[in-house]
Amino acid sequence: MGTDGDVSDVNDGLAQWDALKKIVRGVVDLQIPASTDWPTAKQSLDDDNGSWKFSSVLVAIVERNEPTILLTLRSSGLNEYSSHVSFPGGRPEASDTSVGDTALREAFEEILLAPESVRVLGCLPIHKTRKRNHAIVPVIGLLSSESVWKPAPAEVQYVFEFPFSALLNPDLPRQYVDGERAGSWYWADQQYDIWGVTAVILSSIAELALATGRGAAIGRWR
Fold first, then answer.
1. Which of 185, 191, 202 is nearest to 73 (CA)?
2. Burial 19-56 (b: 16+ CB within 10 A, else e)
3. pTM for the full predicted model
4. pLDDT, tens only, 16-67
């Protein structure tokens, strides 16, 4: 006979897989294809003066018994966002024909994740940083549990997995109330310092996962 703990574990697992299904459905319902070219993506923001710095990131969800999301701890030697927790990603290059191409290329360069191992679902709306005028397209993809990755030391110090048990806990996303980070979102009680736009993107994913119906709006966290 199973124990109460066994039953709880099963129920938690079912809830997490139900949340994953909601994320998949929510991303598909948003109808923002990863094949969107960069000129079209940029049209979604008023960028007449060229003030926005555009990039895309890969939000890679690993299909484990408890699903997880890949995050990186960036190298301390980088010129921008050094030692920050982030998703693999970066700015478009001339060879990138779409926002998805950029995210997949950057993921390969940063964590050696093979593009063909990612089942790309689509994108979230552009997320903007508060101070640096960065406009970021989150590209959502699924990975099997057999997928492989490892950090490219020049760019990434460490790759880790953010569990759905944390993603689905509504008490964890919070805002700083004072100091230099006042007003910024962060994810509480984590081993690594997850804050800023990374925390906001995670919160948008959580919003889809916790939605009670189809077509839930994304935007509460921005």
1. 191
2. bbebbbbbbeebebbbebebeebbeeeeeeeeebebbb
3. 0.88
4. 999 999 999 999 999 999 999 999 998 887 755 678 899 999 999 999 999 9
Residue type, 161: E
Residue 60's closest CA among 142, 134, 131, 138? 142
| Closest CA relative to residue 159, chosen from 80, 74, 91, 84 | 74
Number of alpha carbons in the 13 Å side-chain half-sphere of residue 52: 21
Do 15 and 168 meet the contact criterion of CB atoms below 8 Å apart? yes
Residues 63, 15: Cα–Cα separation, whole Å: 14
Q: How many Cβ atoms sit within 10 Å of the Cβ of residue 123?
A: 25
Residue 138 CA to residue 205 CA, distance in Å, equals: 10
